[in-house]
Amino acid sequence: MPVKTIVRKGVYFDSISLMRIAEKINSISGVSDSAVIMATKENKNIISSSGLLTEEIKKASDNDLAIAVKADDEKTAASALAEAEKMLAGKKEAASSNLTAQSISQAAESYEGLNLALISVNGKYAADLAFEALEKNMNVMIFSDNVPLEKELALKKLGARKNLLVMGPDCGTCIINGAPLGFANKVNSGNVAVVGPSGTGIQEFSCLLSNLGGGISQAIGTGTRDVKDDIGAITTVQALEMLVSDAKTSVIAIISKPPQKKSMARILSAANKTGKPVVALFLGEEKELTAGNIHQAKNLYEAALKSYCLSKGESFNFVREKIYNDKISLSERIKSEKAKKNKDSKYLRGLFSGGTFASQAIRLLEPVIGGVYSNIPSSEKFKLKNSMKLEKHSIIDLGEDEFTFGRPHPMIDYSLRKKMISSEASKKEVSVMLIDIVLGYGSNMSPLADLKETLEKAVKANPALTVIAAVTGTDMDPQNRRYLIEELEKIGVMALDNNYMAAFAAGEIIRDK
Amino acid sequence: MKNKLFESRLKVVNAGLEAFAEALESNSVFTVRAIFSPPICGDSWQWSLINSKIGEINRANQKAAERVLAAQPFLTSMGKAIDMVPGMRKNLILHAGPPVTWDRMCGPMKGAVIGALIYEKMAETPAEAEKLAAGGRIKFEPCHDHCCVGPMAGIISASMPVFAVKNKKFGNWSYATMNEGLGKVLRYGAYSKDVIERLKWMENVLYPVLHRAIKALGEIDLKAMTAQALHMGDEVHNRNRAGTSLLYRTLAPAIIKTSNPAEACDCLEFINRNDHFYLNLSMAMSKASLDPAAGVKNSSLVYIMARNGTDFGIKVSALGSKWFTGPALIPDALFFAGYSKKDAAPDIGDSAITETNGLGGFAIAAAPAIVQFVGGSAGDSFNYTKKMYSITCAENNVYKIPAMDFKGTPTGIDLIKVAKTGIMPFIDTGVAHKDPGVGQVGAGVVAAPKEPFQEAFKAFVNLLKR
Fold first, then answer.
1. Which residues of chain B neighbour A100 with C-beta distances below 8 Å?
2. pLDDT digits (tens, 9 = 90+) for B46-64
3. Which of A260, A241, A261, A266 is closest to A252 using CA atoms?
């Protein structure tokens, strides 16, 4: 198969833009593989195994852009390269019609009142840009990951000293004054603020709340490491303190994995001091934490429901009723899915793009169906030896580093997941396939078009199979939740707008068949 | 101070993913896209060292830039190189750019050396001249190391007449030859009989005429003239039509007063027919303005950029007289009919001293007539100039751009800012044919190569460590 290459010297594009281009190119029929990379040593290593590391690219250096396409024939490869060039050129055009600056400092000098820097460059450079922004008295959201821990600590200490928020590094989602930052959904505004290190957790929480009729005042991502004692929850505590005087916020939710000990103490004390009702979800935390103004929740749905009740002045009875009614409304559907099963239908396969969803599903399902194998298992006993080879009940998080290195995040690029859906669906032992689809800004903009064929084939290939899709999103999102759910239902997929209920349905269908 | 984020209108600067900026814009959020490119050199400890001393560096750069801005360059007299230029001697040939040996010289520079040796009557034929040049008896040194500047090949030999420019603020001098015009000329490596004859005429007729006129005038304020030329559509590197006209207007009465009518007429007509006559003066003026910025402790201001058609070299204030070099690149150009990029010599000439002084490519927004070189629209030229503010220390107090509301041009290239942003100084330039004797084949633009800045960055960090 011919491989064609272009190297452009001395240009720079951020990796995610390049991955989006690679994704487009890979979708051209006749193209079997491609790489669109800055020719750093690391990137060259990544593509060497795929046979795309041509002599030309070997010679290219850090500041060079390299494009390689492997295709059925020369002509396809050439036209794919032309397409790549077109997309690269397109980027420039788009930029020229907008407000631009040569650097963060220059932006601050040229435009008055900039109050937030959103940084998503390569992690190697992100911290320096964040320092630059803090220097100019801006709050910072750092979407980038791979920022050294000591830099994160220094940034957060400086931020705390200057009374500026440092959201991140590795902060996927924020909503500030109604504006979606990073991977975020378009939700109702309201009086609930949410704080925490989990981006997808915040997305699901804010969508559930919005779909219930509640709304968000602020969503403040803190970065995944904030609740480790190395950092000591600096951002979480700072955000809680800021929310005390935010008149728009009357209820606060904290969505997190269990914080380390000292961080937990700091968070609880700060939450207590807010004087506002706080819903606390520390996913997997066993200890009882409800006390005073703090109301513990055990899963994302419960957290959203409790926040909703507090924000509307309703009693928590509503929480139990709502969950009960939701389950009842699914019972017919569950019954009919169970009826499809045969003696071979046994196992669950969960293919998730959101880590928080995978881990919530494992926690919800294990008491119902027993141990679930995973690359992020509840105990070492259930650790998958090979994350690509699923066995028995398995749920994997495709957003883990092992899958995303050199590849776009599975919320954007479905290609790996589509391959796995096809191969898993054809196995007789698979009874339920559980996937998440995350909508909103930053995510895949055409999830239906991208997934439809794969899902249709999966349903046809295995008539006993139940495919459950948990959709995180709202009807205001550019991808539109309702339309997606209706279309998925048309092709025989059980589509729900709630990860908790999706896991519940999966568990019911599998157990005691 | 209290954080007022939640009470304020959100205004975002986005660095990185375009999709995030688009999402914000589609939600009507005020969004500025900061262009990001990674640093061209330096590891994290080097950058921490720089960052820890950035206050001192910035103060030093301010001091160096103020010297540049305070310059008062005047054209005061003329003379033969041998009599005027410090260190000039009979067997010395000065050339553009950083030091280069005969065997590494590009075609146009070799051609110009051959021409100069014939002009000096040290050789009769090109073959003889080549042998002499290669033999080691003739020494080659950069113009810049002798207070001189020369366009393209930049060749100056002992008996060539030079303009003398004095920076009255600091008392330093600079020198440059008279511009020969376009077409087949020595600076593009041509050495045919007519080229040598023209040089002889310039020595025997033009030089005495101009010399007398300048004496009669006393002095000519080149800074004021350049500032006016900028208001008239020049950037005084690739376009010198306004500067030449202003100079002509100043010189004409004095020439007529001090020379016989036939010679006066010939000389005025020679200047009139050469739109680039002012270039050598804009260069000498820039050189005289920048030299006092050398040697400021901790200053990362670049006070020389120059090319010899093989290497591109820079000098940095705190790093004194040391050259830092890297390969010269081939300009992106519009070519005269019949020529293409494959005919072009790599970037050549001391004329990048104009950019170093906040003129030329840095002031391209002042020259709408030549925006074809940078994409064709006035907006393109604004963008080029605007970009240079990110890598400079100051806005010029005298050179201003009418179309940008008389904003001062970006002046005083900062090595650290270049290294950090990866934005390379932008030069607009003529392009020489790679073979000697052919002449100019086009004009266009070129970004300075990274290597000289990377080398200088290393040396600068080592200096800070001490």
1. 32-35
2. 988 998 898 899 999 999 9
3. A241
